[in-house]
């Protein structure tokens, strides 16, 4: 049996991220980064996609194979939903602080605090997660759409049968301006034919044509 091919995509890397041990969550409101005092780790953050899975990886700044923690991202694939509850929560007092739901290989989880030095890093982090979600939504819609290759089109045989003749009928259409539209159209056609005498069937330009059309 052939080995499974794993496609990994690095969507974002931020070299400086800070991790805090969380104090008890306030009974009212959400998490507040200003309450965090116990810093437990510092290193690089990566947003990575592996096949259909997305995760936030906290890795050693010098040795990226040394993974401190993994936060699986559970995208909300409802097109109208935001990405809340995906494993990352925002703090209510700062745009640079987040709460991550990390999980180990046995499925056990806990919450830790994440902080960035710069607002731009926090913005890039939010954008990477939202872009990943939107792509997953688009992939879901594409998978649900009917395939054109599977649609059946009724075939029609347009070949003439032996002995069959073609009858061509050319009629003068009615004008939307009045009941004698057919007669008026017929008169215009006869006038056009009379004006074409000696011109080899080529219609002369109208006097209303612009010089650019006559050139």
From TrEMBL:
Positions of region (Disordered): 170-215
Start-end of Basic and acidic residues biased regions: 206-215
CDD domains, per database record: PHear_NECAP (cd13228)
Cross-referenced Pfam families: DUF1681 (PF07933)
Residues of the NECAP PHear domain: 7-171
One of the GO biological process terms: endocytosis
Protein name, entry field: Adaptin ear-binding coat-associated protein
């Amino acid at each position: 049996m052939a080995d499974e091919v794993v496609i990994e995509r690095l969507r974002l890397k931020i070299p400086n991220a800070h991790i805090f041990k969380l104090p008890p969550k306030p009974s009212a409101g959400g998490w507040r980064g200003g309450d965090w005092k116990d810093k437990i780790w510092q290193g690089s953050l990566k947003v990575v996609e592996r096949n259909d899975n997305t995760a936030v990886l906290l890795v050693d700044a010098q040795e990226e194979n040394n993974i401190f923690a993994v936060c699986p991202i559970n995208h909300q694939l409802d097109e109208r939903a935001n990405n809340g509850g995906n494993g990352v929560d925002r703090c209510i007092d700062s745009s640079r602080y987040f709460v991550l739901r990390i999980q180990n290989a046995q499925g056990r989880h806990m919450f830790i605090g994440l902080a960035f030095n710069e607002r731009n890093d926090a913005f890039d982090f939010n954008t990477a997660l939202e872009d990943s979600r939107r792509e997953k939504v688009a992939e879901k819609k594409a998978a649900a759409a009917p395939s054109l290759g599977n649609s059946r089109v009724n075939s029609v045989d347009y070949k003439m049968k032996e002995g069959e003749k073609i009858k061509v009928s050319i009629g003068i259409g009615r004008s939307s301006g009045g009941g004698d539209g057919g007669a008026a159209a017929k008169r215009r056609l006869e006038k056009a034919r009379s004006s074409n005498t000696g011109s080899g069937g080529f219609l002369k330009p109208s006097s209303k044509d612009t010089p650019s059309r006559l050139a």
